[in-house]
Amino acid sequence: MDLFEYQGKQYFAKFGIPVSAGDVAHTVDEAIAIAERVGYPVVVKAQVQVGGRGKAGGIKLASSKAEVQTHATNILGMDIKGHVVKRVWVECASDIAEEYYASLTLDRAAKQHLLMLSAQGGVEIEDVAAKDPTAIVKLHINPIIGINVATAKKAAADAKIPAKAQDGVAAILVKLYDCFTQGDCDLAEINPLILKPTGEVHALDAKVSLDANALFRHPEWQEYRATEELDDRERLAREKDLQYIGLDGKVGIIANGAGLAMSTLDVVSQAGGSAANFLDIGGGANAELMTAALEVINFDTNVKSIFINIFGGITRGDEVAKGIVEAMRRVELRAPIVIRLDGTNADAGRQILLDAGIPASKLVSKPTMLEAARAAVDIANAKVA
Amino acid sequence: MAIFVNEHTKVIVQGLTGGQGKFHGLRNRAYGTNVVGGVTPGKGGQDVEGIPVFDSVAAAVKATGADASFVAVPPKAAPAAILEAAAAGVRFIVCITEGVPAQDEARVYATLKRDFPNTRLLGPNCPGIISPGRCNIGITAGEIAQAPIPGGKNVGIVSRSGTLTYQALFELKQQGIGVTTCVGIGGDPVPGTSFVDCLAEFQNDPETSAILMIGEIGGSAEEEAAEFIKAHVTKPMSAYIAGVTAPAGKKMGHAGAIVSGGKGTAQGKMDALRAAGVQIGANPTEAGQLMAQIIASLS
User: Residue ranges of the domains in chain A?
Assistant: First the structure.
């Protein structure tokens, strides 16, 4: 779950990481009120989860009430690479002496935490890595040991952060580690981490991605879920508790298991089509789940065929078939279904589908995944007469 | 032979009195797995269809001599359950629990490595392990797995995905190919057991003649496997990688299945495995067919 900058900064602040005084505004009036409160000059920043905000004109410095009014008016509602700006963050402008970079992630290969630190901040870290890999210090942290101030200070020195800033950087790194671990982040990144002319070190940006599996111990995350940028299909799927990701193609996909669902996307592509979505209905493909899944697929007007790909393990094919027949009674579908049913009791399942007397224009059964993919793609790609 | 578990493995189920634990624990027993006990704090002395329940893993191990545990408890309780089993001397722990936070997984992994280096954890968020005809721990439907053919050429399977594992088992069974052991390592960011761990075991298992591997996008486990195969695996292999068409930045169901920063793509993984001499199927069926050809050529 990716946070907006303003949420990331508020999250940082909970763990004592210094950020600029500021607040989030949904309207021009709110933006002005915040600017009057924190004092000029301020920076008005578009809150979108996409890079290149500055270039798109989504970040502006304002020295007066009139300028805040102008910039907030322009930025609110602005479209940045398909993301409409609904909120701006207004914060006290900072004088910058130097810009650094700091991040914490999980290094899956090493099965340890990874601190990345560089004296070259304010630019994309990938660019720094490409130009001069030695400019980035990578430090593995054992999750049951953690990081202390001394280790953090050594990392800062290794990253060639000047001596005058090392204590401030080290203090922030220790707090960032608390935020990353206790705050259940997948990523906690500060870019830039700035040194002010006054000698203070301070997070000027915040990029935080949270581990959705930890939601059970973070009731405060509910507010972040409410602002997540989902399309209408994804929102409906979430209400129905389905693992759904919207895509741009014409073949609606329902599969049991994440691996099989991914694989279904692949075979549809190999057959010359494109998937409208990823949807994993998990193990228990009963009538309720199948109905919910078909409702979500049906909501997508791009869908021209529906590919149901089920492999019965513990889930029995006959039960899946009953679920589909029942779901088709409940939902009036916009597109025909192509089904591939295999595994435990698949023969019985296919017989149930046959006996249900569903016309071939609404449901076709194919014995293999590839044949089913081809049939679904043929239907989706057929020219309308 | 089989790897990790066999007919002698004695299994306890942590969470035997809960819904998942009871359902799958009893299924595992019905398959022929030596399920000797269950653990639910506060319910010691009860039994679940004849399987004795204990208050702690230590008590269960003391009474039954169990050497493996099947952890089927909710995400909140799973880390403590795994560490309890390790502390009680259980050598092989299978955790099917889905939804364990990555920070907990990383801490559990590091704790096991430091304090219980001889304990192996499989999972979390995995379908489990089956040595067909001998032992089934987890949620795999035993009837779709073909037991090893005596005197024949048999296959070992290792997979990051549940349903695709079942499909692989099923397809090999259709072709009459036996399976020594099928290990589902799970799709989470910090799995206790990796591809490499399983490949090393299969390479050393005299009964396993060839290895089928199923990977997916995200992380670098397949690339690490490719390095290992190049250096250490002499047995023929086929593989399939799911997620060729997955868009970057979207988690595809599994917590670990995400292409980020151009890393962890299916193409990169396929290239690495191909360079290590692994035959790559464009879909799971093709990987199964490739394996059937490999077995035919060995026989």
Answer: 21-92, 98-224, 232-381
**CATH placement of domain B10-122:** 3.40.50.720
pLDDT of residue A284: 64
Tell which CATH architecture fits domain A98-224: 2-Layer Sandwich (3.30)
Chain A: give the shortest CA distance to residue B277, in Å: 22
Cα separation, A73 vs A181, in Å, equals 38
Specify the pLDDT at position A33. Answer: 97
Considering only CB atoms, which chain B residues are within 8 Å of A260? 161, 163-164, 167, 242
A303 interfaces chain B, CB cutoff of 8 Å: no
DSSP secondary structure of B67-109: -EEEE---TTTHHHHHHHHHHTT-SEEEE--S---HHHHHHHH
Cβ separation of A214 and B216 shorter than 8 Å? no
Please write the tens of the pLDDT for every residue from A262-296.
999 999 999 999 999 999 988 666 778 888 899 99
In chain B, where the domains are located: 10-122, 141-298
Query: Per 3-state DSSP, what percentage of chain B is helix, strand, and coil (rounded to 5)?
Result: 35, 20, 40
Question: Is 3.30.1490.20 the CATH classification of the domain at A21-92?
Answer: yes
Q: For residue range B254-274, what is the model confidence (pLDDT) as tens digits?
A: 777 877 777 789 999 999 999
Ranges A126-130, B12-16, B181-185: which has the least confidence: A126-130
